[in-house]
Design a protein that fits this description.
Elements (H helix, E strand, L loop, with lengths): L2 H4 L4 E3 L2 E3 L5 E5 L6 E6 L3 H17 L6 H17 L1 H12 L12 H5 L1 H10 L3 E7 L6 E9 L2 E5 L5 H14 L3 E5 L5 H14 L7 E3 L5 H9 L5 E5 L2 H12 L4 E5 L4 E5 L5 H13 L9 E7 L3 H14 L18 H16 L3 E4 L16 E4 L6 H4 L6 E7 L2 H9 L3 E2 L1 E5 L3 H10 L4 E4 L14 E2 L2 E2 L4 H6 L2 E9 L2
Parallel strand pairs: 7-8, 7-10, 8-9, 10-11, 12-13, 12-18, 13-16, 15-16, 18-19
Antiparallel strand pairs: 1-2, 3-4, 5-6, 6-22, 11-21, 14-15, 17-20
The structure holds nicotinamide-adenine-dinucleotide.
Protein name: Aldehyde dehydrogenase
GO molecular function, one term: oxidoreductase activity, acting on the aldehyde or oxo group of donors, NAD or NADP as acceptor
Pfam family, one: Aldedh
C-alpha cells in the first residue's frame, strides 16, 4: 500500500478497485494548501453499480446470516488497519489536518480498535429471544423475537473525524449483517479510499458487501437516500444536509439514522473550580481547531464571576497557537478548507456586529499566510440570543455566557435547537448530577468524565439527530425486529 506516495486512489465496487468514471479530483493538505494527489471521482453510474453490488451481496449470499464469516472479516480488517496504522496516520494528518496527537485516539487508533467491539457484539449477541408462551385471542402461541439485518445501508460521512465516523458505521452495520456503500466527504477521500484498498487486498469480505465510493459531487451521495434498492441511510454531517437526506429518504420510507450538528454547553456552577473548569473548556474548544460536533462551544458561567471566567478561558485559549499538525505538540491545526475558514471568519465578524468582543484571537494568525488557520478565539459580552451562541461555527471559537444560578444554567443549555452533548462542573457531585439530568442532550460529561468509548452510545436529541452510534444501541440501529408467533398446540 502506497497511497500517500503515489497519490493514486480507486473506488471499491463489487470487490474490485476501479477508476472513477468521472475521472479524478484533487485532495488538498489544509495545513499547506498543497495538492496531495487525486481521488477517484465517481459518477451516478458508479454509484448505481455499487448499490447493485451491495443489493446482490445481501439478497444472493449468506452474508446476513453467516455470523462467523462476518466476525472473521471484521477482525481481519481491524488487524490489517493496525498493520498499516503508520501509513493511515500520515494520510490522516496530511488530508484532515488532524493534529498528530489526536491520531492515537478518536482520530484513528480508537475507531480501528473499536472494530473489535462490533465483531464481539455480533458474536455474543442474542439474535433470537424467547418471549415465552401466551394465549392472545385464546390461541396458545409461542413467541420468538428475532433481530435481523436491515439490508443495504448507505453511509454518508463528513471530514472532521473521518475514521471515527466511517468505521463507527462500517463496523456495526456489517457486524449486524448488512451490506454497505460508504460515501465519504469530498474533502477527505483518501481516508476512506485507504480503507477500501485494505479491504480489497487484506480481507475476505465477499464482493459487494462493502463498497467505497468517493466523489466530488454531493449529488452522487444523495442517490443513496433516493435509490429504492437502499434500505437505510446512516448519515453524519450538518443538520441542513441531514434534513435533505431525510426528505430524499421519505419517498421510499427508508430507515434514517442521523448524527448532526451541535452547540453544546459547558456549565460551570458557582461552587466549581472556576479557573480549572474554564481552562478545560477553552482547551477542548481549541482542539482540532474546534471541528468536533460534540465540542462544548458555549461556556456558561456564574454572572458574578463572568470577568474572571473570560480571563481564565482567554489565558488558555490565547496560549494555544494554531500550528503544524505533523508536530507532536500541536493541539490546534488548520480547519479543513478555505471555505470553512471564511465561514468561521464570517461568524467572528458577526460577533463584533452583535456587540461582542474578543478576549483573545479573532481572525487569521499573523504568522501563517498559508494554510487554513484560525486563531483560537474567546467571544465575550453576548448572551444566548446572539447568533454566534445559537449557530454551529465549527471552528476554534468559544462564546462565554453568564447564568443566574442552576435553573438559569439549565435553561440556557436547553435553549438551543441542538441537543448533542454537554458538560457540568460543580464541587458537589449530587448537584452536578441533578443539573445533568435536566439537560436535553445525548451525552453529558460531569466533572471531567469521558463519554467516548466503543460500548457507550453517542448521539443527539432535537435537531442533533435521530438514533445512536456505538455501543449495543448503535449496533441495534442496523437491525430490524421480527416477531415470530408459532401456534403452540
Ligand atoms: P455536510 O453536511 O456538508 O456533508 C456531510 C456529507 O454529506 C458529505 O459526505 C457530503 O458530500 C454529503 N452531502 C452533501 N449534500 C448531500 C445531500 N444533499 N445528500 C446526501 N449527502 C450529501 O457536513 P460537513 O461540512 O462535511 O461536516 C460538518 C458537519 O458535520 C457539522 O455540522 C458537524 O456538526 C457535523 N458532524 C456531526 C457529527 C455527529 O456525530 N453528530 C459528527 C461529525 C460531524
Amino acid at each position: 500500500m502506497a497511497i500517500l506516495a503515489n497519490g493514486e486512489s480507486r473506488l471499491l465496487i463489487d470487490g474490485k478497485l476501479v477508476a472513477g468514471t468521472a475521472g479524478t479530483f484533487p485532495t488538498v493538505n489544509p495545513a499547506t494548501e498543497e495538492v496531495l494527489g487525486v481521488a477517484a471521482d465517481a459518477d451516478s453510474d458508479d454509484m448505481g453499480r455499487a448499490i447493485a453490488a451491495a443489493r446482490s451481496a445481501f439478497d444472493d449470499t449468506d452474508w446476513s446470516t453467516n455470523t462467523e464469516l462476518r466476525v472473521r472479516c471484521l477482525r481481519q480488517l481491524k488487524d490489517a488497519l493496525r498493520e498499516h496504522v503508520e501509513e493511515m496516520r500520515d494520510i490522516t494528518v496530511a488530508e484532515v489536518g488532524a493534529p498528530r496527537m489526536l491520531t492515537s485516539g478518536a482520530q484513528l487508533e480508537g475507531p480501528i480498535d473499536d472494530l473489535s467491539f462490533a465483531a464481539d457484539t455480533a458474536e455474543t449477541y442474542e439474535w433470537r429471544t424467547d418471549l415465552g408462551h401466551a394465549t392472545p385471542q385464546g390461541i396458545p402461541t409461542r413467541r420468538t423475537l428475532a433481530r435481523e439485518a436491515v439490508g443495504v445501508v448507505g453511509a454518508i460521512t463528513p471530514w472532521n473525524f473521518p475514521h471515527q465516523i466511517n468505521l463507527a458505521k462500517v463496523g456495526p452495520a456489517l457486524a449486524a449483517g448488512n451490506t454497505l456503500i460508504l460515501k465519504p466527504a469530498p474533502d477527505t477521500p483518501w481516508c476512506a479510499a485507504a480503507v477500501g484498498e485494505i479491504i480489497a487486498e487484506h480481507t475476505d469480505f465477499p464482493p459487494g458487501v462493502i463498497n467505497v465510493v468517493t466523489s466530488s459531487d454531493h449529488a452522487v451521495g444523495a442517490l443513496l437516500s433516493q435509490d429504492p434498492r437502499v434500505d437505510m441511510v446512516s448519515f453524519t454531517g450538518s443538520t441542513a444536509t441531514g434534513r435533505a437526506v431525510m426528505t430524499d429518504a421519505a419517498a421510499t420510507i427508508k430507515k434514517v439514522f442521523l448524527e448532526l450538528g451541535g452547540k453544546s454547553a459547558f456549565l460551570v456552577l458557582d461552587d466549581a473550580d472556576l479557573a480549572g473548569a474554564c481552562s478545560m473548556a477553552a482547551f477542548t474548544a481549541a482542539m482540532h481547531a474546534g471541528q468536533g460536533c460534540a465540542i462544548t462551544t458555549r461556556l456558561v458561567v456564574p454572572r458574578a464571576k463572568y470577568d474572571d471566567a473570560v480571563e481564565a478561558a482567554a489565558a488558555t485559549m490565547g496560549s494555544i497557537k494554531p500550528g503544524d499538525p505533523t508536530s507532536k505538540r500541536t493541539v490546534c491545526g488548520p480547519v479543513i478548507s478555505a471555505r470553512q475558514r471564511d465561514r468561521i471568519q464570517g461568524y467572528l465578524d458577526l460577533a463584533l456586529q452583535e456587540g461582542g468582543r474578543f478576549a483573545c484571537g479573532g481572525g487569521r494568525p499573523a504568522d501563517r499566510d498559508t494554510g487554513f488557520f484560525i486563531e483560537p478565539t474567546v467571544i465575550a459580552g453576548l448572551d444566548n440570543n446572539a447568533r454566534v451562541a445559537r449557530e454551529e461555527i465549527f471552528g476554534p471559537v468559544l462564546t462565554v455566557i453568564a447564568h443566574d444560578g442552576d435553573d438559569d444554567a439549565v435553561r440556557i443549555a436547553n435553549d438551543s435547537p441542538y441537543g448533542l452533548s454537554g458538560t457540568v462542573f460543580s464541587g458537589d457531585d449530587a448537584r452536578a448530577q441533578a443539573v445533568a439530568a435536566r439537560m436535553r442532550v445525548g451525552t453529558v460529561n460531569v466533572n471531567g468524565g469521558i463519554w467516548y468509548s466503543a460500548d457507550a452510545p453517542f448521539g443527539g436529541y432535537k435537531q442533533s439527530g435521530i438514533g445512536r452510534e456505538m455501543g449495543v444501541a448503535g449496533f441495534e440501529e442496523y437491525t430490524e425486529i421480527k416477531l415470530i408467533a408459532t401456534a403452540a398446540n
